[in-house]
Design goal:
It is built from twelve helices and no strands. The protein is an all-alpha fold and about 300 residues long.
Amino acid sequence: MTIAMRRGVTAIIVFAALLLVGVWVSVRVPPYAVGPGVVPDAAHVWSARILLVLTLAWIVIGIISARTSLVGRPGASAARASWIAASRPWRARESTLGMLQLDRVLLLVIPGGMLAVTRVLQSSAGSIAQLVVTFGGWVVFVVVAELWMRGRSPWALIAAVAGVVVLRCTLTLLPLSFGFPYGEAVTRIYMALSTAGFLWTFVAAAWSLFPRFGPRRGIGIVMAAAGAGLTVTCAVIALIGPAQVLEGWIDHVSPLPWGLGRMIGIANLLGSVTTAVWSLALSGLVVGLVGVVLALPERTRTAL
């Protein structure tokens, strides 16, 4: 078995394990937090369909560009890098070599724009809080990870995260584009896949750093960045108020909090949600500190 085949098999096994975690999460969610959902209006449905077509076009261009001369066209190199880095993160660094400045800009703008519009479609009128929280967390993640690069190119990491973001947006847009309320079984399947995709984001990000930093430091850098992002995000949610952040989500399609918008009107539940948010912030701090220890170079860790 070649190295590429071993890595591919490892990736399949890892994703299967993440999917099992997603299934466990979807099963643990109580029925009253799933519900039948609501029917999106026509504007949301058609906007989701248009964005889904554009997202699929980006993925297809990336797949085709990986095997043809299309990669020389403007934007195709960015699509190729995002696809390869998301599906084969060990090749993320080589996929970003030789990218033009335009492709680097598109690698940031296209997935970021898809994420922003998807979150708007996924949320009701009060979506500004979700956008701020979502982008704030990812900005903190990228900035902290960049600090560990020490002048090295961050594009392998960016390509891995951007590629998985595009795939996750596709997963979210699929149910949105159908435009009808979903039963409990469909919602739980979506939860399982969404959770696995979310976790794969960090696996792909860490794996993309292995060629330059090694497994220990690559995992540590991503843990430090993810811990910082989680801590800051949860702190912002707690300070703004969980009600303002959670109530804007459309119950039947949002990956999180899967219908908590209906429940947070209960006073005693709101208190428990606030406690959970601060607990997650503390957990993020612990994860970040562990990541810092792992990310330190061997000589620095020995000196400590």
